[in-house]
Design brief:
35% of the residues lie in helices and 27% in strands. It is globular, with a radius of gyration of 15 Å. Helix 2 (51-64) packs antiparallel against helix 3 (69-89) and helix 3 packs antiparallel against helix 4 (126-135). By secondary structure, the protein is of the alpha+beta class. The protein has five helices and seven strands, in the order E-E-H-E-H-H-E-E-H-E-E-H. It has one domain: Heat Shock Protein 90 (2-Layer Sandwich). A hairpin with a 2-residue loop joins strand 6 and strand 7.
């Protein structure tokens, strides 16, 4: 599945950091005038206390996509794990998140600058990977070119059967 964000790619994933950094700072301008319908971009400080904001956005997006209560909670859990991976592996730079609302599906991508001294160890993220495997239809975590990227994809149950 291609991610339809229209954002520059870094290591095969949308580079939200480039998108945010190149946005016009003029008053009244839009953040990304090339974005696809359904994309919500969120920039958060690398602070675990603020992950609840990302979970709240995930809940609203999942509800808009027609997810049932259990599917909304699954996406909230997946976003929590995504943000935790970014905070733990990052260098303290802001978390850059993109929520793409599709027809009965949601894709969430996140990125941040990787910590120079800490490798993105598979053992360290084993629990997050196990949780994501249960609550998401597809997920990927990677560290490439000094950036940590995470992608989570969740479809509505009735969309899977079609």
């Amino acid at each position: 599945m291609a991610i339809p964000f229209g954002l520059p790619l870094v290591g095969g994933w949308p580079n939200i950091a480039t998108n945010v950094a190149t946005a016009s700072r003029d008053e009244g301008s839009v953040l990304n005038d090339n974005r696809a319908d359904g994309l919500i971009e969120l920039v958060l400080p690398a602070d675990t206390r603020l992950v609840r904001v990302a979970r709240l956005v995930a809940s609203g997006v999942a509800t808009t996509a027609g997810f049932d209560v259990d599917e909304v909670e699954d996406l909230r859990i997946a976003v929590d794990e995504l943000c935790t991976a970014l905070v733990e592996g990052g260098d303290g730079s802001p978390l850059l998140l993109g929520f793409d609302l599709g027809d009965g599906e949601v894709t969430v991508v996140g990125s941040t600058s990787a910590s120079g001294g800490v490798a993105f160890e598979p053992d360290r993220l084993a629990l997050s990977r196990q949780i994501l495997a249960v609550v998401a239809d597809d997920h990927h975590l990677s560290a490439d070119h000094g950036q940590i990227s995470v992608r989570v994809h969740k479809r509505r149950t009735d969309s899977k059967d079609a």
